[in-house]
Amino acid sequence: MPSEFQAPANVTLRPPVASLGPLGWLRANLFNSWPNTILTLLAVWLIVRVVPPVFNWAILDAVTGQQSAAACRAPGAGACWSFLSEKWRFILFGLYPPDQHWRPALVVLLIVTMLIVSCDRRLWGWALAAIWLTGLAVVFLLMAGGIFGLPYVDDTRWGGLPLTLIISVVGMVLGFPIAVALALGRRSELPVVRALCIGFIELVRGVPLISVLFMASVMIPLFLPRDVTIDKLLRAEVGYALFFSAYLAEAIRGGLQAIPRGQYEAADSLGLTYWQKTSKIILPQALKLVIAPMVNNFIGQFKDTSLVIIIGIFDLMMTAKTALSDPAWLGFYKEAYLFIAVIYFGFCFFMSRYSLWLERHLHRGQRR
Amino acid sequence: MKTILTIAGTVIGMSLMASAAHAGPTLDTIKKNDYVRCGVNTGLGGFSIPNSGGQWVGLDVDMCRAFAAAALGDANKVKFVPLSSEQRFTALQSGEIDVLSRNTTWTITREGELGALFGPVTYYDGQGFMVNKKLGVKSAKELNGATICVQPGTTTELNLSDYFHGNNMQFTPVVIDSLAQVNAAFFSGRCDVYTDDASALTAVRAAAPNSADYEILPERISKEPLAPAVRQGDDEWFDIVRWSIFATLQAEEWGITSQNVDTFKDTKNPDIQRFLGVTAGIGKPLHLDDKWAVNIVKQVGNYSEIYERNLGAKTPLKLDRGLNALWNKGGLMYAPPAR
Fold it and tell me: Which CATH superfamily is domain A171-313 in?
């Protein structure tokens, strides 16, 4: 066909304005059909209505610097960033003694570093386990103190972001092995093990996290003798890790079931024992398959830490709420919640991006 | 539900029996720990809340400090245990705390069935009325015909209509469920009056843009006596809690403050001499040394100082003493003689 085409000689065609350049782009992407034109116009209208007021509130009319609450309550005042400059240390570190704030700050840094280091696949294995165990021990020593000249700080004074991270990360570290064990146990051929695992998973999944935390904080002390009190934070942490492990176990079970029967049979025919088969063939493939649901669980559980508010533990959410109840600074909800929303978003976004990267990285074999 | 209640009842019952069997003197535990474990609210302005520097402040918190000053001689030897309202009595029963100082209303059920023993009232709260100063109203008795903003609740609405019927007055209720909306309705002038517990009204007022325009009327139409509580079965510790509070009241009655307490050392009044431990005798009944009362006054202050610091005119809450004034100034605060 092309050979039959005769280009008209000496005619310089202008580029088609309607399909190239900015105008063309607009037509192709924003106004290519009636419904899309209407949606575009609606979106423009929304942006015009929403962005300027938000900009005025957050920047132009905002009250900044070391001002009093009265300045923020003046008519026409926008966002009260003075509230945050007064309260940011309390929101981040809670009741921790202010002259020791470098310790929880270091703890946050340490945990974030450990999370980033864990992303490096070259370290996966016993090295990573060692890093985490030492890391968590250092975190605990830093927070509690009492040695190396650090003043002792009771865990009723821990709070804010480091506490949220500790609850969440310890929950992951404790919960993950339990979850793997539960998932394997649920598919075990030993009836007692299987029944126990199913019973535990269904029981824990059948009740809300709040009631687990309540049981941990209200019921357990009643069964203990008067002079034995288990630390409130520890009780909450254990309840939290168990709750989390039941959910994670179901995600991992999905991965186990997705492994083709042939993989099991091949391992058996090689004469591998159950543990060799599980640790070298089944689990590595199964865990890779369930990265997305697992990270989904991690993100969910990170945000669920805010429920410890109901048993009087000062996590990030609680410190923000408490900062809001200060009689001198009542009513600056927007600023406080925006502040912690940014922090929560930062951590959750990091986790989700990392999981995407990891999935792509580990699925190279399957990619066509 | 019934089964759950029975189980819960049995559990609490068992724990009470256990407490009777183990009733070890709380004071010994406190001396061994070298701190008083005090259950407080997680965040209620004026009563118990951490300030920007992470220090606990408030009336309930200062009472904890008074107990520590009495029992250990140092007001800083307190371990504050923040508790939600559901946890508070369990924490007391299970021995997690030594005393509960958490804006808790003293009722017969709590004392009889939950195994708590309430000390003297540290704050008389109750339902009150807030009005705009422009109305020129000075007493709730002048509110006939008013439009009243109220949140639908268990007793707030009921108390309101009882009070008005009892005084042969008419009112138009404006019932709004959400706190934010009821605040907006009141501050926009849709109602003349806003009713709620007085301490809650002050918080609403403190958050208002022009809080000086509003006034809380002196009448209280319901009884919410807030008092600290200890476990039943340890009378020695109960006495210390009780008399620590009385000591703050007694000091106010005599005009002894944390500032001027040293000038009272040379007083001729034998009651004050004994109170300040100049002459012996005040410590023995409580198994403490004679300096316990002076420690409270010096380190924490008298009741008036505690009140003004946390709730008084210089704070954002600006709460009048009202019922919480001393008995000889028209209030209900009365300490038995310390002799």
Answer: MetI-like (1.10.3720.10)
